[in-house]
Amino acid sequence: MSVNVKDFGMDNMPMAVLEEYGAKTKDPRLKEIMLALITHLHEFVKEVQLTEEEWFKAIMFLTAVGQKCDDKRQEFILLSDTLGVSALVDSINNMREGIGTENTVLGPFYETGAPEYPMGVSIVQKATEKGVTAVICGKVLDKNGSPVSGAVLDVWQSSSEGLYHMQDPNMPEHNLCGRFTIGADGEYIFVTEKPAAYPIPTDGPVGVMLNACGRHPWRPGHLHFIITAPGYDRLVTHIFTNEDKYLDSDAVFATKSSLVGEYKACNDEALAKELNIEGPFEKVEFDFVLMSAK
Ligand code: BEZ
Ligand code: FE
C-alpha cells in the first residue's frame, strides 16, 4: 500500500495550514479568525526571519506571562494593554458617532461592591497626606441633552500617591470608590482627591518587555467610571487629569483628548460648606453622554 506523504515547507506555507483549517473548522466566525490569525502569523515569521532562539524566547516569555496570572493578577490583559490591543478592541466595539462620551479601557482595578453613596459625599475614607481635594461634578445626559434619571455611576481611582485600595495594605477596602444613582436632574457631584499618575505593574514579564523596549510604565492620572442605565449602552471611561505629563505617552494607549477634565481652583465658599470641605480645593465639571442601546 502506498501512502501519499505531504511535503510541508517554505513553498506551501501558509497555504497548507490554511487549507487544513479552512476545510475542517465548522464554526464560521472561528474559521474567519483562525484563517486571518494563521495568515498574519506566518507573514510575521517570514518578514522578520525569526530565528529558533527568538522563537524559543517568545515561547518562554508567553509561558512566564501565563505563570504570573492568578485570581488577582492578569498578566495577559496587561500584555494586551501595553501592546495597544485592548484599546483597539475597545475602539472597534464602542463607536459613539462622535456624540456619546468615548469609552476607554476598564483596567485591572475595578471591583464590584463599592459603597453606595448619596450625592455630594466624599469617597475618601482615608486621605493621602499630600492629596489635593477635588470636587467632581456634571450631568449624565442622553444624546439629545436630556438627563438620564436612574443611571448608576460607579467610580474608582488611585490615590494622589498613585495606589488603588487593593494595592495598599494601609488603605481601607473600597477607599476612593463609590456608586451614585443619578436623579431626575441628571446631576452628579462627589468629593475626592485628585488622582496622580501611576505606573502599571512592572514586577512581571510585561515589565521586562517594557524595559527592553525602552518604554516607561506610567499612566496619566485619571478617574475610572462605569455608567449604566436601562436602555443605554454601558459606558466604561475615564476623566484624565489635565496637564499630567504622561497625557501624551500613556503606557496602555488609552488616552483621548475628549476625556481630559480641567481641574480648576475653586473659591466657592457656599459649595465648600455644603460639601463639608475644609481648605483649598479644585473642581472639575464633566458631562457624560450615553448612547441608546442598539
Ligand atoms: C488602569 O487604569 O488602572 C490600568 C489600565 C490598564 C493596565 C493597567 C492599569
Ligand atoms: Fe487606572
- The CATH C-level name of the largest domain is Mainly Beta
CATH fold descriptor of the largest domain? Protocatechuate 3,4-Dioxygenase, subunit A
Number of helical stretches of at least 4 residues? 7
Order of helices and strands: HHHHHEEEEEHEEEEEHEE
Helix content: 25-40%
Pick out the low-confidence regions. none
Number of domains: 2
Taking all residues together, what is the mean pLDDT? 95
Q: Main beta sheet, described?
A: 5 strands, mixed
What is the terminal separation in angstroms? 60 Å
Structure description:
This protein has 294 residues and is an alpha/beta fold. The protein has two domains: 10-50; 75-289, Aromatic compound dioxygenase (Protocatechuate 3,4-Dioxygenase, subunit A, Sandwich). The protein is 27% helix and 19% strand. The chain is built from seven helices and twelve strands. The protein has helices at residues 15-24, 28-48, 52-68, 75-82, 85-93, 205-212, 269-274, and strands at 133-141, 152-157, 177-181, 187-193, 198-199, 218-219, 222-228, 235-241, 260-261, 264-266, 281-285, 288-289. The strands form three sheets. Strands 1, 4, 10, 11 and 12 form a five-stranded mixed beta sheet that branches. A five-stranded mixed beta sheet has the order 3-2-7-8-9, with no helix packed on it. Strand 7 (222-228) and strand 8 (235-241) form a beta hairpin. The longest helix has 21 residues, at 28-48. It is elongated and about 95 Å long. The N and C termini lie far apart (60 Å). The model has no long low-confidence stretch (mean pLDDT 95). The structure holds benzoic acid and fe (iii) ion. Fe (iii) ion binds next to strand 7.
